[in-house]
Here is the input.
Amino acid sequence: MSDLTGEVIDGRYKLNRIVASGGMATIYAATDLRLDRLIAVKIMHPHLAQDEKFVERFIREAKAAAALSHPNIVSVLDQGWNQGGTPCVFIVMELVEGATLRDYMFEQGPTTLPNALQMIIPVASALSAAHRLGIVHRDIKPENILVSNEGRIKIADFGLARGALLGTTMTAESSVILGSVSYLSPEQVQRGVADARSDIYSLGLVLFELLTGQKPYQGEDPVQIAIRHVNERVPAPSSINPNIPIEIDDLVLRATDVNPDKRPADGTALLEELRKLSEKIDPRKRQLSLELDLPPVPLKEPVKEKERKKKSHNAKITPLESENEVKREKTGKTKRVSNRVRRNRRIASVLLLSLIGLGWYAFAGPGSKIVVPSLAGATVKEAKAVLENLGLTLKIGSEEFSEDILEGRIIKSDPAGGGRIDEGGEVTVITSQGKERILVPNLIGMPPVAAQKLLEENNLVVSEITEEFSGEISSGLVIRSIPAEGERVKRDSNVILIISKGIEKLEIVNYKGKSGEQALNELSESGFEVDTKYVFSEDLPAGAVVSQNPSAGAADKGSRVTLLVSKGTEFVFIPNAFALSEIKAITALEDQNLRVIVKKVGTKKEKFVTNISPKVGTKVKRGSKVTITVG
Here is the structure.
């Protein structure tokens, strides 16, 4: 997309500079000329703006995001389509001057627990507000969390690039494309669905990265990372940073559990837990429980514009104290022993039952089987390597067409991703033949019934039949189709047939005496071929139609009409016929379409012209009388 800096969008928003650009849009810092304030304008890339469905979703989700009024969510102020200047679809948002959480993490490395909670709690507060309205972000990651220069935390891109409603479904493949794979929940990878708990999973990974300075799963292959999200448990942050207390480990592990049912239910539930933990760490920081109604507290470690500095995590963090700890009252020795014996027996019973259950699960039940990873979108080579690492074998099955999966890559497997199979078992994969495209056949000149049959044989559907006049195709036969012959379309695409009504009959009016120019224009616009010839006329002025062929009445559209247009009266000059013999003089005058009257005098046998009336050189109408005297 070309740089639009300097342009005024919608007659109101002047684009000052580009601040960010991604796969969907470019974001400009801009000025609202009407309210004289700084804002951000997000402009969709032109190739996406040509997709009507994408634009409709873009606008619909902008409206949904605009309904979120929260201090930790970037506000959506306006949206529209620029009609003047460069055409574009745009969204107007609050301008946040600062950096992304990714920038902060790049500069600072792992941060302290209090500082991490100070950044995560506002995000959870924003998610709480969104989830109450039934809106899911789907793409929580450090790049979408902004840190303003004042220390305010805000979530950006709330639903503008993804599905907006709780429980909406995408394909697993589109999930991988739309989300950032390092933060995708297992259900997004495996089943292509996301709800509030998916946002909790992603935010748990962000907290993990803040505390440890690294992502739980490293690597360059997004398919491998996605598979690890499904099949592996996120490690405890304390395995990397031993200063992390067990209560934080527990929260991160529950938030990132593979089973969504074991995570906090939504942003509100997570926010409550985070606040309690924050208060236990330092009760004086109870202000962190606000939904940032108070002025923001600047971060202790602001983002600096210089090289990244890795900061060690040397500060000790005091383990959290249990609220439920109470002092036991002193009792008699016999009572203590009795209580201890009963308690030990109960523990032994529970352990025995647990061991029996675990033994069944691991050696006879579902635990004895291996979870099949989601292989959708992977190459056969990649899938084979993954399965072999799990002790499984790969079998290549049939091929199918796919609109979403590239040719040669895997569409699905049997068992499907998430299913269980015995160790050493075989997983059959269905690979993609790419997008299926059917060539629209030549239907011109065919009867509609035959055309419809041919389309059905090619897995195409006649959706509509319309009629048009045609001067080339006989009545009742196909003139053309939409899409046209030779175009490549999807299976079961709709095809419109246009059938001939034959040659159109049009009424020709009588143009005699009317303007020849008017007649020419009207007949040409009606689809007639017009020939114009000019003739002298004694009766009609120059430019008027003398006659036409055919005359007034019905005629085929496209047929030829001849117009005779007047050149007006024809004048001639009387030639000099003096001294010519009578016969030669008459011939010379009649050649000029003059009528000759002869007046004879004298007795000579051979007579010559002695007088002409009117005089020689006189201008007269063609056909006028001329008298010659011969003698």
The chain has a mean pLDDT of 81.
